[in-house]
Design goal:
Blueprint: H1 3-6, E1 7-10, H2 15-24, E2 26-31, H3 37-48, E3 52-60, E4 64-67, E5 70-73, E6 77-84
Antiparallel strand pairs: 1-2, 2-6, 3-6, 4-5
């Protein structure tokens, strides 16, 4: 898998993700369900040019959703909490044109 296939999207607009970023220098990502910790570490290091010291993963159960009378279930997904080396950071809000 390429790094772009491993890392699906960053999770940045939640209270827990913000707290982890500010206090523990950790970043939260949604990742491919079949990716392991080594692939996640390598993908983050290649894409963002940072050093990773640890990766914790968890499988998140999909929520049940209703549409009118019908019910459905969102897909299960995998979340990774990546610990960065002291002094490294990832800035998702910087303007790419600068």
């Amino acid at each position: 898998m390429t790094p772009e296939q491993v890392i699906r999207r960053p999770i940045i607009l939640t209270e827990k993700a913000t707290l982890l970023r500010e206090k523990h220098n950790q970043v939260v990502f949604e990742v491919a369900r079949d990716a392991n910790k080594i692939q996640i570490r390598d993908a983050v290091q290649r894409l963002f040019k940072v050093n990773v010291t640890g990766v914790n993963t968890m499988l998140m159960r999909g929520k049940e959703r209703r549409m009118g009378r019908g019910k459905g279930k969102m897909q299960n997904w995998k979340k990774a909490i990546v610990t960065l080396k002291e002094g490294d950071s990832i800035d998702f809000f910087s303007d790419a044109s600068e």
